[in-house]
Amino acid sequence: MKIKNWLLLILLFLFTGINAQIKNPVKFKFTVNDLGNNQYEAVLNATLESGWHIYSRDLPPDTGIPTEYKVSGKNIELIGKFQEVGKKHEEFSEAFGGTIVFYSNSAGFKQKFKLKDPAKPADVTSEITYQTCDDRVCLAPNTLEFNQKITPKGSAEETASETTTQTAKDSVKTLETIVENPVKDQITVTENSKLDPKKLKIETLDFKNPLTECGNAAVNLGENYWTYLLLGFIGGLIALLTPCVFPMIPLTVSFFTKGNKNKAKGKRDALIYGFFILLIFVLLSVPFHLIDGIAGNVFNEISTSVWLNIVFFIIFIFFAGSFFGYYDITLPSSIANKSSKAEEAGGIIGIFFMALTLVIVSFSCTGPILGSLLGSAITGSANVPMLLTFALAGFGLAWAIIFGLLALFPQALQSLPKSGGWMNTVKVVLGFVELALALKFLSKADLVSKTFFLKRELFIAIWIIIAVGLALYLFGLIKFPHDDKKPKISITRKIIGILGIGFVIYLIQGLIPSERPKLQLLSGILPPLNVSYFHDEKDGILGMHPEHDFFKAIEVAKKENKPILIDFTGYGCENCRKMEEFVWSQPDILPILQNDVVLASLYVDDKEELPENEQTKIDLGEGQIKKVKTIGDRWSLFQQVNFNNNSQPHYVLVTPDGKVINPPVSGYMQKEDFKKFLECGVNYYKKNK
Description:
Elements: H1 6-16, E1 26-36, E2 39-48, E3 53-55, E4 68-72, E5 76-85, E6 88-93, E7 98-104, E8 106-115, E9 122-130, E10 132-133, E11 142-150, H2 158-171, H3 175-180, H4 221-240, H5 248-257, H6 263-283, H7 286-290, H8 298-303, H9 306-324, H10 333-342, H11 347-361, H12 363-380, H13 384-408, H14 421-448, H15 456-474, H16 491-508, H17 550-560, E12 564-569, H18 574-584, H19 590-595, E13 598-603, E14 616-621, E15 624-628, H20 631-643, E16 650-654, E17 665-666, H21 671-688
Parallel strand pairs: 12-13
Antiparallel strand pairs: 1-2, 2-8, 3-7, 3-10, 4-9, 5-8, 6-7, 9-11, 12-16, 14-15, 16-17
Helix pairs in contact: 4-12, 4-13, 5-6, 5-13, 6-11, 6-13, 9-12, 9-14, 10-11, 12-13, 12-14, 14-15, 15-16
């Protein structure tokens, strides 16, 4: 049974473009035209780069994102609905299965209105929600806001209004300018001066010029890249054992070695075939690099979205059902047919399309594995595009090596196991793995939303049930649709089944109350220690009660005469949990955190709305305005503006007057490195306070 529904479309969208240094293919210009007789027209003109288009509001349902244009203001009354201006294009889309309506090169959006009181000025706000696409990728939907003050002609305020508007425009600084060109004249925060919560940029927080250079425990990001390369390689090897791929290995290798009179040329073509497989998988990561420039913080927003994590949870359950054999996940047959037909070109081009056809037709088995790598990278790191590139390169490398080596040494084909029921066993085992991974995304949604329903013990209990189910399957006590009626239980199945039982025993210790962290292998995957039936999430972290507001932490630090440890963290941050459970909890680290610093844990994914008087906006340049509406918005932008960083965990030691003591550090690190960072900053402060 083939399933083509919105979940699969979401997966494909995520896989072909979720990330981009700032690329923006559309430029907007907002003007307000005076039509006379107390009628005005708010006009937003869009200019698009070549090859890009923006959707119309008349887009059919279940296709793209239709453009919405809203105009509002206290002293204005709308006249009719907004109108679109420009050359409208209509085109059938195979991806959406319907006709899409869009504008290329340029588009305009107009809304007429009148002033309720013609004698008074009005602040006009226009807001547009839109999506831009080209032939290869669609960018994430975006919402921008534009403002302009108008004053009726002849009004006494007309001249003053124009001056005020220009002054306000000149006073705005973009986020990019603030980060790259910090103000040199530092402002010292004294007892009599107050920090403004709306002013995210604090001039004294100059991370490039700390008071001392000691304790710089830089994390080797390269190690993380190689880890994902290895994970991708292992995933590729596992995918080769699935029913969609394994039977094609001898057929493909034989095509090159036996189907070619010139055996040397046949081997060369097989090696080129393997290279193209590697290239295709690496190219899958390119869209992520493109979008990384469009919105540098997009991955953080995606990874901490409650609804997106729930969608990932559903998708992984969906993957598991496919692996169990209840249905197949396939790409539209037209894609495979077109690729297969292109093989007839022969030569290098024909070999490329042979490789592309293999990747497409094997999607039923490889899609869930690649989706797992995607989900892991998006929710577990700051530099998602590079991690995905390494993971996909590892995946493709495994295939390229196997096909290449077998082409060079075709006699090795004789030693390969014959296709059989064991391949379905591999798929079913992967189905249990997908079920376990799905729970991770549900847990993250639970933590970010602060419902705290999925306690640590409940999470572990569900994993125990999954592990028991896996063991029962491997021992032949549970069957799935594609299993043999009388399966032969091999020695390998029995060994893996015993390992599954051992994993159950390992998990059980996590159900026993303890003040010390357990299950270190699962650190970062399980909910935090304080999200437990035996503890209250209000009990704090390791008995500590950190401040969750930097400005309050400054006040406490002044009273206690201690430095502040800023901990940029997140409810859905895996490495943050690992640091708390297995580094902070160490006997030579915890006393420093408890006694020598004021801990300020700032959650960048906190969805609680700020009080209205603390909500603000930041001009990102080029007409884009970012609303600081939630607590997470505030601390995420606070981190970016002051430290040019958006990864978590990120640690900064600061004096009570707001000066960075030593170089900040990021990511999970060994205890000794973190201890060196802490002791350096704390000792420096004690000597110089």
